[in-house]
Amino acid sequence: MKKIIFYSLLLASQLLAQQREFRINRDLIQAGNFFNSELHYFPTTDGFNVYYIYKIPYSQLFFEKVDDEFSSGLIINIEIRDSVDNVIKRAFDEKNISVKDFDVTNSRSIYLQGFINIKLNQGKYKLSAIISEKTSRRERKLPPKEFTLSNSEKIFDPILLEPNTILCEGVDSYILSNNSSSIPFNMPEDILAVPVSDSTINSLTINVKRGDTTILSNKANTQLIICNPVFNVCDGKITISTTKESPDIKYFLFSNFSSELTEGPINLEIIPDKNISKKKTFNLDVIWIGKPFSLRDPEGAIKYLKIIETDDKVSELLKKDDLQKALYDYWQKNDPTPNTKYNELMNEFYQRIDYADKHFQTISGNDGLKTDRGKTYIKYGQPDKIERDTNNDDHVVESWYYNNPKRTFVFIDIDGTGKFNLANQK
Fold first, then answer.
1. What CA–CA distances, in Å, run from 86 to 51, 82, 119, 124, 127?
2. Using N-to-C axis directions, what is the helix angle for 311-318 and 323-332, rounded to 10°?
């Protein structure tokens, strides 16, 4: 049985490199190429339920081709040490996946997810995790997480939930977003959920600050739900399920939490029943997950506007003192969701820039953005259908078809270098 291993270069360099340990890198989270993990815990009658939750995109896994399927898998081992550095618990989780479509193995939006549940008493602990990649049989040690479990704690770490519920075993359930405890800037509809174990707390308000600047002030929770103090795996996603039983854990929800936030670190202040003396503060980071690479340099991003704008307009923007502000102000006039800081149209344009630059470069090294296919892709997006053939001169002909509105573009590779020139448009 022949086996072919398909390697993800970024994972090889960042996750499974020869170094014994790697550190959490904001840029990796922003790129969407990261092993995401979060630690959450809830009090029980005899201690605490502790959950180590993980998520990794398929694009960052090693897949092995066997017959007509592509297979991969992970083993996650965790070790818990107490305050005097004694190992008190070990646990693991193992996941295997198989897919038939090779394109799925490169997906950055489909994830392998799971969790490990352990029970602990009050105390200070350190959790260490090791990722073992089953196909390559290599492993990587993650940075340790230190945490304290205390019965006096009533407000627990915030959890990001996706906005829509699903039915899990017939019960309405929320899906965890899990972006390594960061706040995704580009998911403004996500819900901030604050777990509370004190039944006497009836409401929460929050303040969001960045340095001396207050971004949100006295924002009240939009909803209160009662959930079981456990996590589940449902359709490959990590969920919490609502319940009508006695409220062991109440979740105070803040809808569209990041819609008014910009990228960068924040201080989240949580105030129960408007009692400022019981305020609890969390240090979080708002990160644009999967941010287009072409958008990370404001000057370069403005120059890319020459594809759709006049040279005079681009020159005008480049003369501004604050290029970042000039760029965002430019796109704001065409923002399909002006009530949020995140601009979907801006994201789409620069995602197309990234794609064209990567996929339409020629053998001779011509910039993919300057090719006819690159320019067409940036302007019209992914075609509904692509056909390839040869003409009477034995040149490769590529035809792009768009359905709405109907458009056809025909490109010909005349010199065999991959530089497809636009020959016909209708």
1. 20, 5, 16, 12, 12
2. 140
Whole-structure pTM value: 0.85
The CA radius of gyration of the chain, in Å to the nearest whole number, is 25
Which helix (H) or strand (E) segment holds residue 188: the answer is none
Residue 8 falls in which region: left (phi positive, over 0), alpha (psi -120 to 50) or beta: beta
* Residue type, position 85, single letter: D
CB-based contact 147:153 (threshold 8 Å): no
Q: Kindly report, residue by residue over 233-255, the tens digit of the pLDDT.
A: 999 999 999 887 766 789 999 99
Query: Which residues, 6 or more positions from 273, have their beta carbon under 8 angstroms from its beta carbon?
Result: 201, 202, 203, 204
d(CA 292, CA 348): 9
Query: Percentage of the chain surpassing pLDDT 90?
Result: 70
Q: What is the DSSP string of 300-327?
A: HHHHGGGGTS-HHHHHHHHTSS-HHHHH
Torsion (CA) 342, 344, 349, 352 in degrees, nearest 10 = 110
Q: Tokens 């990160």 belong to which residue?
A: 287
Q: Which secondary structure element, helix H or strand E, spans residue 386, and what is its range? A: strand 385-390
pLDDT means over runs of 10, the chain (426 residues): 34 34 57 82 92 92 90 95 96 94 89 95 96 85 92 94 92 91 92 94 95 93 88 93 79 93 94 94 92 93 92 95 94 91 95 92 79 92 93 90 93 87 84
Q: CA 224 to CA 202: how far, in whole Å?
A: 9
